[in-house]
Amino acid sequence: MNRHWNSYLNRTASRRELLRASSAGFGGLALAGLLGSEAQAATTNGSGAGPLAVRPPHFTPRAKRVIFLFMHGGPSQVDTFDYKPLLKRDHGKPLPFAKRKVVSAETFNLLQSPWQFRQYGQSGAWVSDLFPKIASHVDDLCIVKSMWGSNSRHGGALLELHTGSDTFVRPSMGSWITYGLGSENQSMPGYITICASQSHGGANNFGSAFLPAPYAGTPVGSVGVPARDARIPFIENRETPRQIQRMEIDYTQALNRRQLESTGPDRALEGRIESFELAFRMQSEAPELQDISGESEVTRKMYGLDNPVTEDFGRQCLMARRLSERGVRFVQVSHTYKWDQHANLKRDHEQNAREVDQPISALLTDLKGRGLLNDTLVLWGGEFGRTPTAQGSDGRDHNPEAFTMWLAGGGVKPGLSFGATDDYGYYSVENKVHFHDLHATMLHLLGLDHLKLTYRYAGRDFRLTDVHGNVVHGLLA
Asked: Which end of the chain is more exposed for a tag (fewer CB within 10 A), N or C?
């Protein structure tokens, strides 16, 4: 067999001939599309190591990895974590100051929250009855009530949250983090997004843009695909023995490297070389990692897998823990696209909260019990908040001027409620935190200086925060 490949290698062979010769050789070939476009490629940063090799941070980190719990659509801050007694008192009255520009339709008078707020934990943080299980963790949460963004539309706001730019195609925050630190597990991608949205920016929200392809997010499933069916495709090859697959890849790589020698640097070709190698390595680890049958019944019930309401998001959260535990640097799970309540606020926010409250609580409990929360940064939130003024009789419009996100673990100050909005929750007014500041702070917790984490493209040095952003030291433990 080796003589056959060596003989063939000594001939001038096109890729089309190669594919004919290898036929249905190795299932991992299809993973190249998952791991990045052909127009982008790998880089070794001059070290001779692969692009996902672990790289040292700029300074001692507090966190090693990130789990992002994305609530697509924009949860209402005044119905979840930002308690506003005056909103209840003045229900039905006009807002006593100017509204921001209309986003999608006119809003009218103030609309009180249909849920009660209560104080929890030693910190006394206010949480609405929407999240009774998450509320039990408030002493581990760092609740940022003064978030704001620049864009009032879902598409632009999602891009700004994920990439730092609401107008241009830029690398996602998961890509920047993986570019800066590499992956702790060389047999898995450094960045995985589970059941990602395909709207409002789609793949641009988890793409690597001009960063080399291995730093792009690898999608597992997509919106509309039940989490139980979300799998990395083509990861098992039961037809071709592993030894033969290795020979086929070696032959392919030899052809590609010969091409590099003749043409010089070729980022697209280098990217394919690295993608094939990672795809082959994944076959030894990904199938077992995706199989949750070994999890105890107690764990499965804790995540809500026995309940059709919580089962789907519970599986995502359980997979996030498993992936993070095995060294995946950045994991995103998405509750897509459900939080956009221009009407039916009480009905739909209530249903949404029932789907995610128990799984998120279980994830925090599980991470803490396994000793992972100390160096895992958990982030929860959406792309903007909602207006305290009513849209119709039971809805709220988009509001990028004020919303709430929370963080846990990974070096943030636990039991903290940071920043404030006005008396009705319309504008952030105290210790305002823009997405750029959030990104700078996340990088800081991971040991990365957002001013130094740069990549030269088209004659300019780019970074996640562009020319903006400040580390919010008040959030740090």
From this structure: N
